[in-house]
Every structure is written in C-alpha cells, then in structure tokens.
Amino acid sequence: MQAAVILQYHHVSDTLPKVTSISAEDFEAHLQYLVTNEFKIISLPALINALQSKQLLPPKTIAITFDDGYTNNYTSAAPLLEKYQLPYTIFVNPKLIDQGASYVMTWAQLKELSTKGATIANHSASHAYLHQRLNNEDKKQWLARIREDIVTSEQRITQEIGHNYRYLAYPYGEFNSDLQELVQELGFVGIGQHSGAIGLSNDLTRLPRFPASGIYSNLETLKTKLTTLAFDFTIEPSVNSVTTLNPPSIILNFKNIDFRKAVFQCFISADNQAILTWHNTNQVTITAVNKLKLGRTRFNCTAPSIKHSGQYYWFSQPWVIEE
User: Fold this and answer.
1) What is the pTM of this model?
2) Could you give the 3-state DSSP secondary structure of residue 259?
3) Cα–Cα distance for residue pair 87/75, rounded to 1 Å
4) What is d(CA 257, CA 138) in angstroms, rounded to the nearest whole number?
C-alpha cells in the first residue's frame, strides 16, 4: 500500500456552525469528484484490516468517516452516500444516545444505516476529554474510569448494532501516551483528527484523518490531500502529544526516503516557524522557534515525492500544550 486517506466529517448542514459543517451541495461535490476520478472508496474496517495484515491496497484508496452521529448525518449525508453506494463510518457517543440527546441519531436510525453499508464505531461515552484526569484523581483511578468508558461504550454499540470493530476515535482528536497504551492494551485502534496519509508504518493507536468540513471543505485544496503519501518512518522515542514542554520536539527516523531533504518542510502557524535538525541522512528533529500557544496545535510536515510526480508526503504531529 503506497498510502490511503481517511476523511473526517461532522455536520452536513447549511445552518449549523461552519467550523464543523459542510453543505449537502458541497458534500455531494466531494462524492462526485471521488467517484468520477475513480478513487477506491472502501470501508474503514477494510482499510484497517489491510494495515493490520500488512496488505497492499491500490493507490487512491479513501475511507469516509463522521464524528458524533448528528441527526443531519441521517437526513442529509446518508441519502447521498446511499445514492453513490459508498461505505462510511459513524463514530458515536452511546451515553448521549441513551440519554436521548436531540442532536444525535437514535439507535434505530443507526441500525438502519448499518444495514445500508455504514459502520458504527466508538467515540467514547459522552465526548469527554479522555486524557484529562478529574480533580484529585490519580492515574490508577483515571485508568479505571476511562477503561470502563471505552469498554461499556463498545458493549452498547455491540448490543444495539451488532458491530464490535474496536475502533476509538478520540474526542477532539486529543490523546496522550497513557491513553494510547490503554487503547493498545484493550485491543482497539485509536483514530485522531490530525491530518496525514496512512501507510504501513503508521502507529495503530494514532491514525490520522484529513478534516473535510468547515474551512477544509474547499474541494480545490482537498484534491491535493486526497492523493497524499505516507512517510515511511518511526517516531523514536515515542512522543507524548499532551505535554508541558514548550516548545515540544519530535524525532522522525525515516526508513525509505523518496524525497529530497532540501524540500522537506514543516509548518506550525503564521507567527511561528519550525526548526529542522538533520542528524544523518534518515533522522530529523523538529521543534519550534517560539513557544506554542496553549491548547491544541500541530506540526504539519510535507515533501514532494520523487517517484510519484505531483504527489506529496504528509505527516502531522498533534500537540496539546498544558501549563
């Protein structure tokens, strides 16, 4: 597999906040582009099974996902996906469904969609920040609480839908090393919201997705991302994405390099720049000139491929900077 791309959507609506929304018209334009240009739209289970078995997938492989299970996914997105006969995944919060929250689908609606090609998967019980401890909560207590959250949420999905894929989309895309270890221990695949292509070297506790809603819904800019490639690398040592170190740094060890080092670039924000320190032909340390803002931010790194003209490698490191 050269690379695959997972797309992430939230609302399909003209009236809800634009930051997490795409109109039904624009969403259909995305689907039309994918179908017309012969992208291979496969289910998320098919993609992850290929990763786990080190199996090759064809170029231009795409999986479509939605977070939160909003009712407009049922009324606006699902009919379009059914029209084009495309598989997709919806990550849901079982506790919110059980509480009858008005803005999310019911179990009956999700069950109906599952019979039409949708995969229903775990987004935690109620969309809390899973890596954060409660006041006066030690690590052991936190682990027990989050373990129960993940496991009971999966049980509810299995009871209502019949699925038991053991995928967890991290709420807000935030995860730390302890949460990754727990996800791995439970036999789950962890899925974030940081951008990037997926290849065989990706860590299955932090798979990336390209956001395709809000400012990222522009089809012209999305086209480049759809054919991105995954760097063949490891992060050594493993990095904690939630940190008080500011600026943080990350070391990438490339296995096979299909790009020129001179054009490998990392971007942070308009008022900050990345510092790249190459230690040898395959290892680079990435940090920042200035401190990062508190909260969520990321390093986005790209490089044009030598072998695949017009395509870019893309990697994103998400950070949550704490005081």
Assistant:
1) 0.96
2) coil
3) 16
4) 43
